[in-house]
Design a protein that fits this description.
Elements (H helix, E strand, L loop, with lengths): L2 H20 L3 H8 L3 H30 L1 H21 L3 H28 L6 H26 L5 H23 L6 E3 L16 H5 L2 H16 L1 H4 L2 H8 L5 H26 L4 H22 L6 H22 L3 H8 L5 H18 L4 H6 L1 H23 L4 H4 L10 E3 L17
Antiparallel strand pairs: 1-2
Length: about 425
């Protein structure tokens, strides 16, 4: 990695560490520590998601016009203010406003940081760069969660204020680190430019919606995020506790198994997938998650012992983690390689928006998971099989290099314009792949 990439990855890891301090404890903080009840805690989560949904549609164009560096810095400051005020708030309205600012800031950071990684990598090294980012995020979240658990005390509201204060400081550290990054020019795949002249007409969202491969990738991404991340702490947790009789402590072990599987398997998986077609890797993830849902169904049948049910449930989360480790070096680089010149920020923001929408709708699985558990599992078995089908269909829309960047070998790729840290445009140099 170059100096710029090292700083980006370091800032990303420190931010994840800070977020890990508060993510597991937000519900307890609002509902119990501040004594506002479960409805207020749920409203805080809604405000967090709403902040992301409001900010993301406007983020991409700003990134492409001003560059990702000032966007990351501004988002980090906004998130820092939101985190600190959340830790100091005692009433419902201040908590909701703080959650709104924190959610918007964190959401805007995602596509801006992704764009920085794109500009500091080539199509052939991008896979490894995004795998490292995902690894560092999960490692930071895990360590932060463990550290926060040693500090937090429900009987001492000040301990929660300390957690949110640490998170606020980590956001400011990110802003400081990113301020020192000097962005190079952005290598891109020449074939990523739309072949249909009509796709070049208009700008922003209109052009992207005419890009068939990107639309299909967004649809696939929505299904992936809804079927996995959207169910972790909602429908699947309800299924485990209601149908499989899983205790809260076992649910904690399951979440730890998910993070552990990612940390242990990330670079082993990377070696297996980085030279293979991305569409087929995503299809394989769909099949792995199909097995995961079948194992989850077994845990809820009640035919075995409680230990067997718990082991099956934990295995489900671990298999999801392996699938996530396969997706991290696949999805984000593919978004970047589909983006036309000058639209990387727009495409990253659109994909981040799709993810937030899937996460916001994830709790719709709770009534099924708790009330009709076997129907719930059956639906997501079919959804996972659908992921495999959608991935193979997407593969037919991709060029050979977009589907498998390792075909580039050591050849030079097209250079798209990047924006320096101060916002000055760099001259573009185009070389055919």
């Amino acid at each position: 990695m170059g100096a710029a990439m090292r700083r980006i990855q370091a800032g990303n890891a420190l931010t994840a560490f800070g977020i890990g301090f508060t993510v597991p404890f937000l519900y307890i903080y609002v509902a119990q520590v501040r004594g506002l009840g479960s409805m207020a805690a749920t409203s805080a989560f809604v405000a967090f998601a709403l902040g992301a949904l409001i900010a993301l549609p406007f983020t991409g164009r700003v990134i492409d016009r001003r560059g990702p560096v000032p966007v990351v810095m501004g988002a980090a400051v906004a998130a820092s203010v939101g985190a600190l005020s959340l830790g100091l708030s005692t009433g419902l309205v201040p908590i909701l406003l703080s959650a709104l600012a924190l959610g918007a800031g964190q959401a805007v950071m995602q596509p801006a940081l992704a764009t920085m990684i794109v500009w500091c990598s080539t199509p052939s090294t991008r896979t490894r760069a995004f795998a490292l980012q995902f690894f560092m995020q999960n490692l930071g979240l895990g360590i932060g969660g463990l550290a926060g658990g040693q500090i937090v005390d429900v009987s001492r509201p000040g301990s929660f204020t300390l957690l949110f204060g640490i998170e606020a400081v980590m956001f400011l550290v990110l802003a400081g680190v990113i301020a020192t990054v000097r962005m190079p020019q952005a290598p891109s795949i020449k074939d990523a430019l739309p072949k249909d002249p009509a796709q070049a007409a208009g700008g922003g969202w209109k052009r992207m919606l005419r890009h068939k491969a990107m639309v299909q990738l967004c649809l696939l991404g929505f299904v992936l995020f809804f079927a996995c991340y959207g169910q972790f702490e909602s429908g699947l947790a309800a299924f485990g506790t209601e149908a499989a009789g899983i205790s809260p402590s076992t649910l904690g072990f399951a979440l730890a198994a998910n993070t552990g599987a990612i940390v242990v398997a990330q670079f082993v998986v990377l070696k297996l997938v980085e030279k293979r077609r991305r569409s087929r890797v995503i299809a394989l993830v769909g099949l792995i998650w199909t097995v995961a849902w079948l194992i989850a169904g077994f845990s809820g049948l009640g035919h075995g012992s409680a230990t067997m049910a718990a082991a099956a449930f934990v295995s489900t989360y671990a298999l999801f983690g392996i699938g996530e480790a396969m997706l991290s070096p696949t999805l984000a680089p593919l978004v970047a390689d589909l983006a036309p010149e000058g639209s990387v920020g727009q495409y990253n923001s659109a994909f981040a928006l799709v993810k937030q929408m899937a996460l916001a709708l994830g709790p719709l699985g709770v009534p099924l998971g708790a009330g009709v558990p076997m129907l719930y599992v059956g639906i997501f078995v079919l959804v996972s099989l659908g992921i495999a089908g959608l991935a193979l269909r997407l593969g037919r829309q991709l060029s050979p290099v977009q589907d498998n960047p390792s075909l580039l070998g050591g050849r030079v790729v097209a250079q798209g314009p990047a924006v320096a840290a101060k916002g000055a445009e760099q001259p573009a140099e185009r070389v055919a792949v």
